[in-house]
Amino acid sequence: MTDAASRSGAIDAAELRRRTQELLAAHPVAGTDRVDFLKARFDAGLAWVHYPQGLGGLGAPRSLQAVVDAELEAAGAPDNDPRRIGIGLGMAAPTILGFGTEEQKSRFLRPLWVGDEVWCQLFSEPGAGSDLAALGTRAVRDGDSWVVNGQKVWTSSAHLARWAILIARTDPDAPKHRGITYFICDMTDPGVEVRPLRQITGEAEFNEVFLTDVRIPDAHRLGEVGDGWRVAQTTLMNERVSIGGMRIPREGGMIGPVSKAWRERPDLRTHDLHQRLLTLWVEAEVARLTGERLRQQLVAGQPGPEGSGMKLAFARLNQEISGLEVELLGEEGLLYEDWTMRRPELVDFTGRDAGYRYLRSKGNSIEGGTSEVLLNIVAERVLGLPSEPRTDKDVAWKDLAR
Questions:
Q1: Which position among 15, 125, 205, 239 bears the catalytic label?
Q2: Alpha-carbon span 116 to 139, nearest angstrom
Q3: Which of 47, 71, 279, 365 could form a disulfide with 20 if both were Cys (CB 3.0 to 4.6 A apart)?
Q4: What is the pTM of this model?
C-alpha cells in the first residue's frame, strides 16, 4: 500500500495492482485452467473489489475495479463470460448482497461470479406484465418450506439456469405491494417446467416457466416475509442499469454496423439518410457518455431511477438505428440469414445481420420494464412530476378486479 492508504486502512490503486500481479504470478494465465483462475481471482478479492472481503471483494471503492480489469486484460487473463451470466451478475448478486444471510452470500456468490451456476429471473407473469405488483403466483408456508404454484413468462436463460430469483404472493389479504415475498428457486426441483417461447427472430431465448407444488425452503427466502417488493426494487434498479448502462466503446453497440456500412458502401448514401445517421450517431454517443456518468454515480451509492432513463434511451435508439440500417441496405436489409429454431445462450446484436437486429430490437421496449412504465418512473422519481391517480394501492390483492 501507499503510505496514505496504509495509515487509513484503505486499499488504493497501487495496492490493487500489486495484488493483481501476485494473482498472476501464483496462477500463470498460460498454465492455469480457466475456471481455476476465476476461482482464484474471486478468492483474492479481485472479482468485484467493492464487495466485502470473503465475498469476492476487498471493500475497496467501486471505481477501482477498472484498475484490476485493465491489469488482467493486459495479461490476457480469462473473464467470466459476463454476457452469458448477466442476470446473475447484474441482478441476483446485488440483491443477495443487500438482503441475503451470511450463509446465502457464502453459498451463492462465488459460483455465480465464476459462472458455474447460471441464474434467471422469475418476475413477469401473463396476467401481470407491466403491473408487476399484481402478480398472482402463490407461495404458501408449510413448515420450514414454501409451496409455490403459478406461471412466469419472458424468462431469459431459464433453459440454462440452475437458480432463479423469484417473487410470489404470500398474503393475498394485503395490498398488492405488501403481500409479496422474495425467494431463491432451484430450477432443477420437481414441479419446475420450462417451455420455450419462439420469438419473431425464430429463436427461443425466452421461456415460460410453470411452477407446480414447487417446494422452496425458508432458508432460500431473501428478506422478510411480505417485504418482497422492496427487495425486488434492488433487482429492478440494477437490471435497468445493466441493460441501459453497459460499458461500450465509441461506435459500439447498434450504431457500429450501420456506421460501418455507411463508410464502406457509398453507393447506398442519400442526403436524407446522412442526416438521420448523424443525428442517431450523436444520440448514441450522448447515451454512451451518460452511461459512463451513471456508472460513476454508482460508486457513491445504489443505482437509482436514472437507470430507467438509460434503459429508455437504449430501447428507442436500438429500434431507430436498426430501422435506419434496414433502409440504408435496401433489398439486402430484408434478408434474414437463419430462421432455425434455436435456444441461444445469449443475445448477439452485432454478430448477426441487419434483419435480425431490426426484429430483435422490437423487444427492447418490453424487456427489463416496458417503456411506458419506465416513462412513469422517470416522470415521478427523476422529474418530480405528480404521480398518476391510483385507486388500488390500499385494496387487498384478492379484491382487485382481474
A1: 239
A2: 28
A3: 71
A4: 0.87
